[in-house]
Amino acid sequence: EKAAGALQMTAAPDEDSSEEDGEEESIQQPTALVDQKGVAGSEVYSFKTPKRTGQMTRLAEDSVKNQTPKATSIKTPVRRSARKPAKKTKASSRASSSDESESDDSGESDSAEEEQETAKPRKQPAAKPGARRRKGGGQDSVLPEMVEEYFHAHGGARPGPTSDRTLSKLQIPRMDQDRLRSALQHAPAAHIKHMQQLYQEHRGQFYRWMLQLSNGFNLLLYGLGSKRVLIDQFRSTVLRGTVQMVVNGYFPSITVKHILNSITEDVLDHSGSFRNVQDQLAFIKDTFEETREELFLFIHNIDGPMLRGEKVQTALCQLAEVGGVRIIATMDHINAPLIWDQNKASRFNWLWYDVTTYEPYVEETSYENSLMVQQSGVLALSSLVHVLRSLTPNARGIFHLLAQYQLEHKDDSSYIGMSFHDLYQRCRERFLVHSHLTLRAQLTEFRDHKLIRTKKGSDGVENLLIPLDGAMLAEYMENPIS
């Protein structure tokens, strides 16, 4: 009975398997996994390198040799649908590998190359370098680059005509500088109540500024409007009785040497000279550390044209690091913070305050040239006097020689300037210089202050010219600075 029951149980799955084989004939039992001796591990896990018989290469060479020229005919491209290879299970892949191992080597190589060709997707034609793709309608269409075509079409075009509406056609007489200043002083002020409220708010921060200055910080005031009146009130109220120095950064001839000389001569009462700026800064630092004094340095427009340079800002950074020096500076240019990098800004140790006053920039713009103001020459002459007062006596003597020579040739229409050799000979005769290097160093300072211009003639000789008209130069030479 037990044997009969076992036969029935084994017979039942045979019937079921026969039915499944009838329905799914594609599924086959693996032959490489199990055989009569057990698991065929060597057939499953062995790595077999396909042998290259070279049949495809020989067939290609034979086809090239036997090829005959044919008439060219236009063939329409036929699209081939790239089918994705069906996913194989582990059992089927192992079975197929065992079947392929029993076949010939040539059959393996041919079938492998055919499978690689069918598995690779069909390459799409590459787009042109000056084109772009846009998807639309299910197909990729290559469009020309419109931007490149636009610039190519308009690259050689001439600019449009400019307008001839200039200030000279307005028929309005220009005012001189004194008349303009008096007109601005009598102009009615607007929004007086609001401006007084702003001043009251700013004056309420004076003692906070004093506390922050005493703790080693420096103040940077920004905002719309002139800040001279507000700073004068801060100096006269909270800082009364302290050592103060005011620097006008908008002055056209201000230099860092003038600032340091004022500190060493007027504040520290030092009458000696220094070899360079670094020695002078070191002297200022050592002196303030010994005396324990405090100096409140006010710089109007630290972003002025003459203070924006890299060397000037570096020297001011070192001056701000001195223990007894407190800097209160203002700025008005919108891009003024760009003159400092992270290192300089950290060395200044700024505290930023918005002190908008809406006051007109009367003093700050007094040295600027306006198209609506008649240039009488008084402004340029006053600037020249201020610059020459800051120079050494020998430098003023060199400028006087150049001005006198230019006045002697003012009626000569072909005069292009005094040559460097002639100026050097005259300076040697008056013991103003002792070498070419000394004279060139002095001329470099003149160029920095825009007192002279250099122009080479047709023979290559360097000529020096003062950019002032004869009347103004004659007016200065009547009362020269000795």
Please provide a brief summary of the model.
This protein has 482 residues and is of the alpha/beta class. The protein has helices at residues 2-23, 41-45, 55-65, 90-102, 105-119, 146-154, 177-185, 192-203, 206-214, 228-237, 256-267, 277-291, 310-320, 342-348, 378-389, 393-408, 420-429, 436-448, 470-478, and strands at residues 131-136, 139-144, 218-222, 244-248, 295-300, 325-330, 350-354, 418-419, 453-456, 462-465. The strands form three sheets. The protein has a five-stranded parallel β-sheet with strand order 4-5-6-3-7, with helices on both faces. A three-stranded antiparallel β-sheet has the order 8-10-9. Strands 1-2 form a two-stranded antiparallel ribbon.
**Morphology:** extended
Overall pLDDT level = 74
By secondary-structure content and strand pairing, the structural class works out as alpha/beta
Number of helical segments? 19
Low-pLDDT stretches are: 1-15, 71-78, 81-109, 117-121, 123-142
For the biggest sheet, the summary is: 5 strands, parallel
Helix content: 40-55%
Head-to-tail CA distance between termini: 144 Å
Order of helices and strands: HHHHHEEHHHHEHEHHEHEHEHHEHHEEH
The amount of beta strand, in percent, is 5-15%
In order across it, which strands form the biggest sheet?
4-5-6-3-7
Q: Could you tell me the number of beta strands?
A: 10
Radius of gyration: 46 Å
